[in-house]
Amino acid sequence: MTAPVTLLMAVHSHQPVGNFGFVFEEAYTKAYDPFLRVLERHPAVRLSLHYSGCLLDWLSEHRPEFLARVRALVTRGQVEMLASGYYEPILPLIPEADRQGQIAQMRTSLRRHFGGEGTGLWLTERVWEPELPATLAAACIAYTMVDTNQFLHARPWLPGALQVQDDECWDLLGSYSTEYAGSAVRLFPASKRLRYWMPFAPVERTIEFLRRLQRDEPAAITFADDGEKFGLWPKTFRWVYDEGWLDQFFGALEREQRWLATTTFADYAARTGTDGAVYLPCGSYEEMLEWSNGSFRNFFTKYPEASAMLQKMLRVSRQIQDARCSRRRAGVLAKAQRELYTAQCNCAYWHGVFGGLYLTHLRRAVYAKLIEAEQLVERARPARTGRGRRGVSGSRVVVADVDADGREELCLKTATMGLVVD
After folding, report:
1. 199: alpha, beta or left, given left = phi > 0 and alpha = psi -120 to 50?
2. Backbone phi, then psi, for 44, in 5-degree steps?
3. pTM metric for this prediction
4. Active-site annotation holder among 88, 98, 117, 125
């Protein structure tokens, strides 16, 4: 008799800092709430959920009963909560101290809302860079999900029995260990096929594919994608809820339990070893790599607006760290750090099909937080003595390469304005 197949599912939900309130409300009404209602009706279906800190803040203020319902699912073992950077930053883009602070803030929030800290991590936009295992291990994160296409460079060294190739797609089953400087983390390859089929293909097609994965040894396949596609994306609410796709899919998973299991990533990792070691280059999901011409960081050479915002964020982060080293006012700096973390929300730094960098209200929200953080750091500075390079009304001038283009700029700071002359 063939061994069972395990379907691992991670559903991620997020709304960016600065987004309009009616967007949060529509996403809740069309996606977050109805998804949870269907899940509550199918207690045998187990999966992992992730809500960004931005969204958790909104839910805590406007829909606290929703968080109580999620906690009930966690308590009965049906749901595992995934950690992340609190304000959904692209982790490789922010300094290590900020990575650790953001993940720690999220784990604290998970403990407060749901009773557990989260040992798995939702990797924002699945942007992977090779040094991340050291960051994740230091933050007590044991595993994360990256897209299957990121494993292509390692394909010749991956177990042949766990590779599924047909005319439509290449899938990789199982999970794999990777490390950086001796710090290891576990990677689950997320299927592009399932990402495209769920919820858009008929339920029977997905179940039949999963049935084909049965083999002599246990097999696990990972689905990891956005919760908004379950109702908020155009035309999906009717298909997913009015016509019952999600209810039918969860019902099929329950009916096929003889050979098909669902579980959380935490439980799977606790009882199953990895399927080998792997080393991955920088990457993300295929569409992201198309938009960025192969590397996420290309957004910052293609768009000066994105680069300017990124470099200001990094300057503010350095200012806060420098101020901490000199033991300035701790309370003010803690508030500055919160503003900085909020400004590290990823969406305004790049663009996809649904906007991002192109949405001025998101960019304004980021700059507002950065300016507030900068002003708080300024308040924490000790009183200055002497003339230095200061002008009238406390203004000062700095010459530095502030946009990392190899050429120096002139920076003027006054009590009411910050100006960079390129």
Report:
1. alpha
2. -80, -10
3. 0.94
4. 125
